[in-house]
Amino acid sequence: MATRIRRLLCASLVAVLAACGSAPVGPGFYRVERGDSVSKIARENRTSVQNIVRWNGLANPDAIEVDQVLRVVPPAGMASAPRPAPAPSASRGDTAPDPAPAKAPAVSLVWPAQGEVIRTFDGKTSKGIDIVNAPGTKVVAAAGGTVVYAGNGLRGYGNMLIVKHDSEYLTAYAHNRALLVKEGQTVAQGQQIAEMGDTDSNRVMLHFELRYLGRSTDPSRYLPAR
């Protein structure tokens, strides 16, 4: 049972990272399109905004991104909350105020690899940063946590690791030549977890992403100056 739950968690985390063009998503998930809103997605999937927010850990329902993959059915073992009845209002056009965006707490990262940064984060075409160096360059955990994914099942990322740091933050390390840790393993900040490579890439590099509550975040804001 524990193995099955871990695999479901890994699948959810991989789905969160799957923002690569128009690749199909699995049953129970939905890829955000231009013009979508959480309320529209909830309505079309016959569920509530509350469920969409809870199943995806969304801090701000108004901050979803085009190509972001959202879970639209409850994970195994989690019940679906009933759709709330419309609240009474003074006029038909009144709506409840949107929740205020949550402020991300600080997270302390170390550089996951030595090398030159050839691509920076822009939140649209680049969901992270790319660091180039020689094949086999040491790749380390940017912060301590648990390895929740180790494999090459996500197109465009090659041999990839995902490390979950807490209930809010995770980091991803893609295109590795070799993965040195396994799913379920606890790693310390600065511990070597992979070797830089070029799997599913046209050059040797590390593609590094930081996610806060499922949303891509500029990792350079959390990395020390160098």
Automatic annotation (TrEMBL):
Keywords from the UniProt entry: Signal
One Pfam family cited in the UniProt record for this chain: LysM
One GO MF term attached to the UniProt entry: metalloendopeptidase activity
GO cellular component terms listed in the entry, alphabetical order: cell division site; cell outer membrane
Signal peptide stretch: 1-25
UniProt keyword Translocase, yes or no: no
Segments for region (Disordered): 77-105
LysM domain residues: 28-72
Sequence similarity: Belongs to the E.coli NlpD/Haemophilus LppB family.
Protein name according to UniProt: Peptidase M23B
